[in-house]
Amino acid sequence: MEAVYKSLHPDAKYALVKLVRLVGIMLLFYVKAEHAPYISEVESETVGTGVMGRMGNKGAVAIRFQFHNSDICVVNAHLAAHTEEFERRNQDFKDICRRIHIVLWLGDLNYRISDLEVDFVKDLITKKDFETLYNHDQLKRQMDEEVVFEGFTEGEIDFQPTYKYDTGSDQWDTSEKCRVPAWCDRILWKGKNIKQLCYQSHMTLKTSDHKPVSSLFETGIKVVNEELYKRTFEDIVRQIDRLENDCIPSVSLTQTEFHFENVKFMQHQAKTVTVHNDGQVPCQFEFIQKLDEPAYCKPWLTANPAKGFLAQGASVDIDLEVFVNRVTAPELNLGLQQLEDILILHLERGKDYFISITGSYLPSCFGSSLRTLCLLREPIQEVPQETLRELSKRSNCELIDSEVDKPQEIPKEIWMMVDHLFRCAKKQEDLFQQPGLRSEFEEIRDCLDSGSLDTLPGSNHSVAEALLLFLDALPEPVIPFSFYQQCLESYSDINECKQIISMLPQCHKNVFNYLTAFLQEMLRHSAHNRLDSSVLVPIFSCLVLRSNAKQDLAEKRKVKEFFLHFLVQMPPEKDIQEKLPE
């Protein structure tokens, strides 16, 4: 930050307006002191697109602000790496855009040069034949196909690729991977009255394997004529005052009943209702809470926008979105809650309108308890919800004494995911660190819930992320909440830790031993997969041993040290194999 400040023009005074950071992604917003009074409505946002859609190793940070009367937003993004991951980069872009309206987009977008050998690329660079090289740029191709960055503009690139160099030099990558040079670092813009004055790289900076790029823009800014604005505003207020007693706000809705069919875990479904102001005056609308309820809608439902302003004769499309996550899935799986809600659309100084929401939810192993899943021989979607409720009520003693419904040692769904990774991913690099694809997760979920396939679809990364999501969605974690405090108190003594595990309910103990045996087996292949305890412990410890309240830093450290005992105390290989049955 100090280095950035020192690089500002010495003949001008600058003020730091905002700093936003997501792990290694940072955005600093400075403004000339003379312009500072005209900066308002400064907001920032971070969007993680790494593992489980939340980790900050990939994603974006953004700062939105108003300068005079123009809204400007700047996004700094770091998208997925590797040449073949352009589809993931496109998905990252869409995930980010869903939550942020942007004007300037910059960062390590990680799009590469395709279909050219490294030596040929370097030869083109030597000849400064950037036009030929640019025709093979992944970002250009994806933009030409309108797959990503639709409506954005990028200036002409007349500088050599900015990646990958040996750190501290201008030498292309000499490592064994010998990366193909590429324009990973880009600056794009979208909007009116924007003119790019300069687009360049900075070859003299050598502290990274990237060469930074910069751009200078000239932007037209809307400035309000305060006197005219005040006079116009007062005229409008007087007109509205005259009409207020005669005109009551009124709207019409295209539909008041919506049904969402076959909703699935972590799968978005959306429908649109159009609200039209058919009254004689502008109106403010807002969805309001029902009596004795904490929010205007159930936690699995959102309305966007939830409030707004409609001029006379204007319309707005409101998206009604259903999304079942780890919080809402457990009760929906058992039929204790239904996809039913009533939204109240309230008009200021007007009447209320009621929108009925119904839906059907397909039960999933995601969000189901280990105990219930151990009792299921068939796929969960073939089991009536009444049966699922009855199974969830059985005590541990009933499970042990039951001869008719003898439980499985571990849920078959965990076995399928772990078995897939055990067979196919022991030597997979970046496992549990690189996210999978949303579409592949949905296929894996459907396979587990319906039993439609004997083998899981999708990449190893998608199966690995599905396993993490499964553990995260358990209503009662692998180590039940009732053992949490005891684990924290005994975290430093491995014998006491083992004693606690021995006291877990049988299915929870089996799953814990199965998972740790699997992770130990993955560590045996660390020379290939590059996994070690420093990677696995932070990821799995907070899923296996978690609190139903917010954890402080000391608790998180103890949780990691507790789980670490079971990875570093490596048993003989034959013992591991015994815990990983066919």
Description:
This protein is α+β, with helices and mostly antiparallel strands and 582 residues long. It folds into three domains: 2-219, 4-Layer Sandwich (Deoxyribonuclease I, Chain A), CATH 3.60.10.10; 233-361, Immunoglobulin-like (Sandwich), CATH 2.60.40.10; 370-579, Rho GTPase activation protein (Phosphatidylinositol 3-kinase, Chain A, Orthogonal Bundle), CATH 1.10.555. 34% of the residues lie in helices and 22% in strands. It is built from 20 helices and 18 strands. The protein has helices spanning 2-6, 86-97, 118-126, 130-134, 138-144, 226-244, 329-334, 370-374, 385-393, 396-401, 412-424, 438-450, 460-473, 484-489, 494-502, 506-524, 526-529, 533-544, 553-568, 573-579, and strands at 14-22, 25-32, 39-48, 59-67, 70-78, 104-108, 185-189, 194-201, 213-219, 251-253, 257-263, 269-277, 283-288, 301-304, 307-310, 315-322, 339-347, 352-361. The strands form five sheets. Strands 3-4-5-6-7 form a five-stranded mixed β-sheet, with helices on one face. A five-stranded mixed β-sheet has the order 11-18-17-13-15, with no helix packed on it. A hairpin with a 2-residue loop joins strand 1 and strand 2. The radius of gyration is 28 Å and the shape is globular. The chain starts with a helix and ends with a helix. The model is unreliable at 395-404 (pLDDT under 50).
